[in-house]
């Protein structure tokens, strides 16, 4: 069930980057328990919007109001460099408990259960003890998603988490995102293909830094599989 009280609210947000208007007059409410997809062409402002939601970029103008006590987890795009991290899947996902438990402190039984549940949610249970370097790129991306799930954040932000993944990894990632929304988290995903996410609750379409379309959940179900890479902006 979605909360009527948004986790984060943007009003007339403008972001200028090196003389370029990256976001222009953006109004957005992000609801708890909902999966929101952000779509648009390259350069339309998608990543800038995520950085504002994550608190990593201060708008040039406008307001950003976040519900008090909101915890944020961000899953950026990952490269082959992540394969060199000297960590197993369990090690990586366990780091997701540091916000509540504290860095390097022993995990409690409840923490270990949370880690195991997150790994299972992304379909990596049988790889839990493997080093990241022994995984495929798609499996590593799912491991980072599991780390975010283990944080039990109120706002989960993902920048093209299914880009370049095989079909099995995409399905596992989409299912895992629903685990987060079912728990009540607000999930925002940047994507080039709505079909990779399954059913979404809201779509924010950006062009030239402005929101130009925001279909309802009913509309998005009718548009599943729509590849938005051709959207102008």
> What is the overall number of helices?
7
Show unreliable segments: 214-233
Strand order in the sheet with the most strands: 5-6-7-3-8-9
Question: How much of the sequence is in beta strands?
Answer: 15-25%
Describe this structure as you would to a colleague.
- The chain is of the alpha/beta class and 233 residues long.
- It is 29% helix and 24% strand.
- It has 7 helices and 9 strands.
- The strands form 2 sheets. A 6-stranded mixed beta sheet has the order 5-6-7-3-8-9, sandwiched between helices. Strands 2-1-4 form a 3-stranded antiparallel beta sheet, with helices on one face.
- Strand 6 (155-159), helix 6 (167-182) and strand 7 form a beta-alpha-beta unit.
- The longest helix has 16 residues, at 167-182.
- It starts with 7 loop residues before the first strand and ends in an 11-residue tail after the last helix.
Can I get a quick summary?
The protein is of the alpha/beta class and 233 residues long. It has helices at residues 46-53, 89-94, 98-101, 109-121, 137-150, 167-182, 217-222, and strands at 8-17, 20-30, 35-39, 61-66, 72-75, 155-159, 186-190, 202-207, 210-213.
